[in-house]
C-alpha cells in the first residue's frame, strides 16, 4: 500500500512513516498543502493520512478540492480536532475515516488496511487460488499450503499487481509503489523483485508486456470482491 502522509509536524510525520513501513507500507510525506497537491498529481496513492492544521491552509480545504476533482483516494483524517462536530464535518467534506490525536499506531494501521480493502472491493484480506494463498494485511503467503517468506518490497509489488488486476503497470509506476516518490534506487530493482516473486510464487504469476511493463498473470486475475 502506498500512503501519502500530509502532516506538518516533522517528528509526527516521520514517526507515522516509520510505523507504517514496519507494516509493509510505502510512504511519502507532504509538510504542507502545496506539496501534497504536487505529490498527489505525480503518484498513485492507495490512501492518504491527512492532518487538518497545515501551515498554508486547512486540510479540509485540500480534501474539498480533491473531491471536487473526483479524486477518490481513501482519506483518513488524523487531527487533534476531536469533537463530534469536527468528525461530522470531516466526513461530510469527503473523509473516509477519522482518527483523533493522540492515537495508537496499531489502530491507524488497521484502519488504513480496512480502507484499502474496501476501496479494492474485497470483503477479506485473504486471497485464494488453487496453489497460492495470501493475506494482504498480515503478509502471510502459502504455496501448496507451505509458508513462503516475502520481503516488504515484494509484498508492495505483489499488492500493486493484484490491485491492478490485469492492467499493465510501468516500471516507473511500480518503482513509486515500492520506494515512494523521492527515493532514488537502481533502475533494475523492479526487475529484480519481479524475478524473486516469480521464483517464490510461480513464473505464471507475473506477465511481462514487452516495452510497457508488467501485469498480473491471467489465471490470477479475478473479481476481488
From TrEMBL:
Residues 124-218 form the OmpR/PhoB-type domain. PROSITE patterns: OMPR_PHOB, RESPONSE_REGULATORY. Keywords: Cytoplasm, DNA-binding, Phosphoprotein, Transcription, Transcription regulation, Two-component regulatory system. Coiled coil: none annotated. It comes from the Bacteria. Residues 2-116 form the Response regulatory domain. Pfam families: Response_reg, Trans_reg_C. Residues 124-218 bind DNA. The modification 4-aspartylphosphate is found at residue 51. It is found in: Cytoplasm. This is Response regulator transcription factor. It comes from Comamonas avium.
